[in-house]
Amino acid sequence: MALQETVGSTDVSRGSFINDPKIRGIIFQTVVVILLFALVYWIVGNTIENLRRSNISSGFGFLRGRAGFDVSSSLIEFTSDSTYARGLVVGFLNTLLVAVCGIITASIVGFTVGVGRLSHNWLIRKICTVYVEIFRNIPPLLVIFFWYFGVLSVLPQPRESIELGVPLGGENFLSFSTFLNNRGFFMPKPVWGDGSWLILAGLVVAIVLTIFVARRAKIRQAATGEQFPVFLTGLGLILGLPILAFFLAGMPVTLDLPVASTFNLVGGIQVKPEFLSLYLALSFYTAAFIAEIVRAGILGVSKGQSEASAALGLRSGQALRLVIIPQAMRIVIPPLTSQYLNLTKNSSLAIAIGFPDLVAIGGTILNQTGQAIEIVAIWMAVYLGLSLATSAFMNWFNAKMALVER
Amino acid sequence: MQEHDLSYVRTEMVLAQAAPAGEKGTGAWVRRNLFATPMDSVLTVLGLLLVAFILPPILNWAFISAQWSGTDRSVCATVAQGGLQPDGWSGACWAFVNAKFMQFMLGRYPDAERWRPILTALIFVALLVPLLMPSAPRKGLNAVLFFFVFPIVAFVLLTGGWFGLPHVETPLWGGLMVTLVLSFVGIAVSLPLGIVLALGRRSKMPIVKMLSVVFIETVRGVPLVTVLFMASVMLPLFLPAGVSFDKLMRALVGVALFASAYMAEVIRGGLQAIPKGQYEGADSLGLGYWQKMTLIVLPQALKLVIPGIVNTFIGLFKDTSLVYIIGMFDLLGIVRQNFSDATWASAQTPITGLIFAAFVFWIFCFGMSRYSIFMERRLDTGHKR
Amino acid sequence: MTNKVAVMLGAAAFGLVASAASATTLDDVKAKGFLQCGVSSGLAGFSAPNDKGDWLGLDADFCRAVAAAVFGDGSKVKFTPLSAKERFTALQSGEIDVLSRNTTWTINRDTALGLNFAGVTYFDGQGFMINAKKLPGVNSALQLSGASVCVQTGTTTELNLADYFKANNLEYNPVVFEKLEEVNAAYDSGRCDVYTTDQSGLYGIRLTLTAPDDHVVLPEIISKEPLGPVVRQGDDQWFDIVKWTYYALLTAEELGITKANVEEMKSSTNPEIKRILGVEADTKIGTDLGVTNDWVVNIVKAVGNYGEVFENNVGAGSPLKIARGINALWTKGGLQYAPPIR
Description:
Shape of chain C: globular
Structural class of chain C: alpha/beta
Oligomer: heterotrimer
Number of domains of chain C: 2
Distance between the termini of chain B: 44 Å
CATH topology of the largest domain in chain B: MetI-like fold
Number of helices of chain B: 14
């Protein structure tokens, strides 16, 4: 900045104003703006002409139209009588569902593998390296196809479903009423009867109590050095209270079990193979990248830190949990954010296997109405919005985790 | 200080003793690396179980039970499915890959003209290998041939229509050839475009800067699928009536624009890492903006971000598989399309084809990442702190 | 002029720009030297490439017939495989000259999308196919409640399906895919119980399944699907050429003119035959249309009459073995009827 000002103000000898960087900059920018406007004008003109010729009306009014198609899986009610707008909402929710489930699983797998790559154990280290090198170097679409065509579609037909359970020897079989076939994964669905709110209340109370206990334990440890088994207490509370409430309320919950019908298993919760393959593929693919980020983060914490924690008498697990990971998180969060965003964006590959996400449903609507510009604009706005929201959240989280300096 | 008559002072060194038996050899290595602590032992056992659970079935499927040759699906289907194999058989159907190999490589490129893509590939390799070997001479000439002459030669050879070569339309192209064409053009376009965008983003001119930021952030914020859809559905609307782009061309535009936004961010990282003194030094020598950038800043900045650039290339290479969604048949697309070929459709066909495609993609991406590590070490001229 | 500029620009950019501008479609096609025809990317019996990459089928043969009418040579045609989603944009943008891709004629397409349907080369209706081996008791679509149904997205089929199941109070589970091959593969692998599309399509698809004999097409037809060739609005001459090519095929069948006997028929004494074959003195039928007077001869030489095209591609002479049914000539109780060529 300073430099330019000096040049600008003292440069008298050059004579020609063309050599003045400021004026040059203005001229250059003017040219850019004019060219850009010309291009936009040309494109808009062509588009209007093309739309007029092919009789496509523009605007978002079409969103109120009747969809006319059905959707295979939806979090909210959707029938062929619903509007296009509702269809897009269904797609958006499906995108979110895949993204959230995928992010959780990918983080768990990625952290495990990332730590595993730094293990002292040769075998674990090699297994993790092989995993990372395989998944990082093949396209995500291929991983999705792999799960869909390679794994899930070779599962048996509904009639020969694989029933999950524990063999008790001989003819006895403890069934979980959970089935796996080429139509997906079926599990019992709890039906909440009267008085079920007691269970929820029990859970809430348990969580509040656990937080309270954890705080007290921390204060006590800071004051006296005595430790309190917070984890076990918390687990006991969170499991125990709802179960207690369940019996107190007179066992109001029943299970809706999947049973065979003419075509398929009906009842229970059905997880479609399209969702499963997308979710598994995105999780496993992104986990390989997260593992590398975690590894780099841990390596980025100086060796002195782990030596110091060893000197304090922390076991390696404790050192990792209390000293290394909190510091590594600072290095990890920015690239982790972009991996989460990548996973969300990659969920748009759903269209290749027919999972009704935002892009797939948008594509169907585009086909039916021909409103290409509007649909693409909606896609872009939604994904940009998701990106910005995720970035904002991760920035907030990053600021919270940042080193508080003295 | 020292007393000379102390009797216990040695005058000659003791010979080094061999390490104790427990500290050397396989046994010690195993103990140290696999069974150091009880927890370690548990992990090792779990790991061994995992390997024992996964590896033998994979080896059996891929090699022992696999079918290597055959003319149709009967070799890859069990008796119950109408084939020759015993019930319960499961193995890779390499015969399928074998039969379709040329299609996987070149798509539906006419038989009589197949020498053209093969020749192109040979020229590509012949030019690329010396370019990648640091010790090979005449880098400048080689680079000019590779980046300027080769694309023209490849274009003439592949599309034809000149010099008596019959014209081959792009819908007939397919397989690995399309993957490579898309990647090569994507890389060749996105690198310069990315540099321009990165410079634009760091520019002091507000309008240029704003435009660059908007472009980069918009493209980076949306999935490639939507960019490709935009290129394939909306581009025809943007152009005057009657002018229409080839489908391959549309995909190229989409892929190249997409990659250039990512490239710009990588290069911006490099630009930011160059100390201010370098810019000021260049200014004080009286260099203009472009001289400063091309002679001083970019050579250093690009060197710093070679790993990032290669990672973007790898990403681009993997992303080309998405053109399948807009109806083109790259390597993955053509493999996928052949699943439904009635001559070969069997339970084992899809997975075999996918594993073949995965292997090809893996070779290319893994090779690129190894080469980037090699170059990183070589170019590490000691400026790193 | 615009043409040349565009072509040159294209060559400079990457040489892959096609163009069809200002002049009439007929002039453009003649200047190019070939007809660019949009077809489906692979539907047995209608348009599918064989091992050598030649396009075979009823829709593909119709393209050849148009090429024969224009050039006198049925081979001067290039095929552009299109997905359901791309087909109308491709036609509107001038990428193709005629769309012959089992496209259903609807008022929306005729008006709002700016298209013209030149006729109905195949009267079809949407049907259902199931695997009879796996579902032995099912012999009507009304028994399909609870089934998973494979359907291609972006087609009228998807909408008819929703309407039919709703009207009959049946539950179903749609499994949708973008591309025909994907739907085929999903149905073949057992991902869904039912496949729905136009009945002619079902017969064609059945052939490509691993065990064709296990599958049956259910009797219900749930929609009207008149399939025909499509051109852009606003070029009446081209519309006429495509329309009358179709009528010429029908008329040839009506008069018994076949690929084999067309040369002999030229010396026929029947005035009607003489008229349409262009051997009548001072005839102007062909030139008024914008083609040569022997256009019908060229068409029949290239592909035969409508009956031959039908039998070779989808009828008894093909693996599909679809009966003529309502696609028979009006004289034989069908719906195929051509206005007089005079």
